[in-house]
Design brief:
By secondary structure, the protein is an alpha/beta fold. It is 30% helix and 22% strand. Strands 11, 12, 13, 14, 15, 16, 24, 25 and 28 form a 9-stranded mixed beta sheet that branches. The protein has an 8-stranded mixed beta sheet with strand order 1-6-7-8-10-9-4-5, sandwiched between helices. A 5-stranded mixed beta sheet has the order 2-3-18-23-17. Strand 4, helix 3 and strand 5 form a beta-alpha-beta unit. The longest helix is centred in the middle third of the chain and has 17 residues, at 206-222. The relative contact order is 0.12. The mean pLDDT is 97. Bound molecules: sulfoacetic acid and manganese (II) ion. Manganese (II) ion (MN) binds next to loops.
């Protein structure tokens, strides 16, 4: 393979090898032959299982320890020299203390194992968005997943040899001891250390660790933004394409929204949606004063349960080849996979995510873990947009914030201006999901869906958003949505999925200045008739409930936002003013 001539890289790899003491060092060049040989190693040791190669060519099955099935926010830390630079929403540890503590855990952690060195890029190499990382790991699962989720190959090595800066990422599964699991970020050293986990979000260090936590820190320094956002492209025949970003917490439907299938009624009018990204956006201001976004990833790490040919046919088709399935159920007759609500035929001769025999039709326990995942190449997606592959930024018309809220939050509204939008993002809350360890279904504040992913003090992060707004002459319009509002019988009132396009089209009409809006205490809501619900069986009464701003609910919201804000020593005045304003609007209701 192409040699690394960058001395700084070689010195660092040598140092990490001296610490972790592997029996062999393997540099990953991303070639098919090399990945194939490594895969064969994983099959031989049963670390991974090859699935039915006729039905699921190139697909593998992988299972993590039952204690290691999701991100672990308690064990995720930001190590800045000053505690206040990590802020009140992050776990902070002094960097030297963390290096010492983890250094002991890494000492000899790869003994008798192979160490893989994976040079990778987030973003297309050669574009201004690209950031290089090198992940050192003792896990083949990580190697094969990084080859899907990031760009790995000769051009990355060339960039390193040409002197590109890089994020130093060290991972060892060690013995997957959950008592000694740490995912540590050292933003001031451009370094990430992760040990004792083998779950994607904790170990695919290009993703949340680099592209969001380190990325957000770099973005603040360098004047761009790293956000937990999908990117989708909406086209109408004969018109210019439009691009939308959406920030939603983990497991709240980003992948489904990014790959949505327009209802027939809109297809007939010539609408088409394509996908650019489903999880992470990097955003930079263009010379024309607009905000441009790329998806720095190269694959999708999506939640399996709930994905089916009806809810997201594009995701289903994306996972038919070259995909790694983690912690789903297996169909042993066919050597395929299954998860809850994939179809109506759970296998009778199956194995659940724990590896226990599982008779689907009669089982009382779930076959797949609620946070079971597929890791699939983005290029497989039938509706991947051509802009994905070039890695050039696309101009964003609208930014959508949203959460999973049974109550309070209306279906859709628009912020009055950029700063009001930053307030709405800062104040957003969502019910927790199985994507992170801990209780599910508890409402918590999750600003911009970045609570677990912001690599520095969130007060400064909010200020960065406000500063970015000042630098744009034509910023995106900001909106808030809630697809998950329920009625008095706890039933979802909005159909969701493809029909979410209706709300997006309202937003785009607003961006184009084609329609007006109605002022509400929260912002600007659709005027009656402007949100096209043709063909949906939604009574006037349900429509009203979807948009209702209930005084008691919002008094509680305001209090909750205040409580959240109180965690910070100081917040941008734009935000505290906006909260005071909301409070008086609600009082006047
Ligand atoms: O597990 S990941 O962090 O990669 C996915 C998510 O929770 O958003
Ligand atoms: Mn995510």
């Amino acid at each position: 393979m192409t040699m690394i001539t960058n001395q700084f890289v070689n010195d660092w790899v040598k140092e990490m090898a001296e610490l972790t003491k592997p029996e062999e060092i393997i540099w990953i060049d991303g070639s098919e032959e090399q990945l194939e040989a490594i895969k064969q190693d994983a099959l031989a040791t049963k670390e991974m299982i090859e699935l039915n190669q006729e039905k699921l060519p190139g697909c593998l099955y992988y299972r993590t320890k039952p204690t290691d099935v999701a991100r672990d926010e308690k064990r995720t830390v930001i190590c800045t020299r000053r505690k206040e630079d990590a802020g009140p929403t992050n776990n902070w540890v002094d960097p030297q203390e963390m290096y010492d503590k983890m250094g002991k855990l890494f000492d000899g952690s790869m003994k008798g194992r192979k160490m893989y060195v994976i040079p990778f890029s987030m973003g297309v190499v050669g574009t201004e968005f690209s950031k290089i990382g090198i992940e050192i790991t003792d896990s083949i699962y990580v190697v094969l997943s990084m080859a899907i989720m990031t760009r790995v190959g000769k051009d990355v090595i060339d960039a390193l040899n040409a002197g590109a800066d890089f994020t130093k990422c060290l991972h060892s599964k060690a013995d997957i001891n959950e008592q000694e699991k740490y995912i540590a970020h050292f933003p001031e050293d451009n370094t990430i250390w992760s040990i004792n986990s083998a779950y994607g979000g904790n170990v695919l260090l290009g993703k949340k660790c680099l592209a969001l936590r380190i990325g957000s820190y770099l973005g603040k320094q360098e004047g761009w933004m790293a956000e937990h956002m999908l990117i989708l492209k909406v086209e109408k025949e004969g018109e210019e394409p439009k691009y939308v970003c959406g920030a939603f917490p983990s497991a709240c439907g980003k992948t489904n929204l990014a790959m949505l299938t327009p209802p027939d009624y809109f297809k007939e009018q010539g609408y088409k949606v394509s996908t650019i990204g489903d999880d992470i956006s990097w955003l930079r201001i263009g010379e024309d004063g607009r905000l441009y976004a790329v998806n720095p990833e190269n694959g999708f790490f999506g939640v399996a349960p709930g994905t089916n040919m009806k809810s997201n046919p594009n995701a289903m088709l994306t996972t038919m080849k070259g995909t790694i399935f983690t912690n789903v159920a297996r169909n042993l007759d066919e050597n395929t996979v299954w998860w809850e609500s994939m179809d109506k035929n759970p296998p009778a001769n199956g194995e659940d995510w724990l590896g226990n025999p599982w008779n689907g039709p009669e089982a009382e326990v779930k076959g797949a873990h609620p946070n079971s995942r597929f890791t699939a190449p983005a290029a497989n997606c039938p509706i991947i947009a051509n802009e994905f592959a070039t890695g050039e930024g696309v101009p964003i018309s609208a930014i959508i914030f949203g959460g999973r809220r049974a109550k309070a939050e209306p279906l859709v509204y628009q912020a009055k201006d950029w700063n009001h939008g930053v307030f709405i993002g800062s104040a957003m809350a969502s019910e927790t999901t199985a994507a992170a360890n801990g209780q599910v279904g508890v409402v918590r504040h999750d600003p911009m869906a970045m609570l677990p992913f912001c690599g520095y003090n969130m007060a400064e992060y909010f200020q960065h958003w406000i500063d970015m707004g000042k630098r744009m002459t034509n910023p995106p319009k900001i909106f808030h949505v809630n697809w998950f509002r329920t009625d008095e019988n706890d039933k979802f009132m909005w159909p969701g999925f493809g029909d979410n396009l209706r709300a997006i089209l309202w937003m785009l009409d607003r961006c184009d200045g084609k329609i007006g809006a109605e002022s509400t205490p929260l912002g600007l809501a659709p005027k009656k008739g402007d949100l096209d619900v043709t063909g949906l069986d939604l009574s006037d009464e349900v429509m009203e409930k979807l948009f209702a701003v209930n005084k008691a609910d919002w008094e509680a919201e305001v209090e909750g936002i205040q409580e959240f804000y109180d965690k910070f020593d100081s917040l941008p005045v734009e935000l505290t003013d906006a909260l005071a304003n909301l409070k008086s609007e609600i009082e006047a209701l």
